[in-house]
Amino acid sequence: QVQLVESGGGLVQPGGSLRLSCAASGIIVSINSMNWYRQAPGKQRELVAGITSSGATNYAESVKGRFTISRDNAKVFLQMNSLVPEDTAVYYCNLDVYIRNYWGQGTQVTVSS
Description:
Structural class: mainly beta
Number of strands: 11
Helix content: under 10%
Order of helices and strands: EEEEEEEEEEE
Strand content: over 45%
Largest sheet: 7 strands, mixed
Shape: globular
Radius of gyration: 13 Å
């Protein structure tokens, strides 16, 4: 059974930074990509950033230049800088292993003064 455990969320003032971490455990044969999604109240879940097994990255337009995704084996990180209130959401870690997707439980990020 594959499990994803996220950490690093919290309350931060506008302009601040947070670093999210996600660790995958269990039997993982082959990783296609590891991703971060977020869901704000009343909105659909959206892709924030992703990184493939070869290291290629992609970002939502709204976070380009502010967020950086990185990966170390079965761990994925999201460095979030210059946070704005619109970044407030529950952030979910996602693991794509080609034949299915796994999700973490989510971590709350709140940007407020």
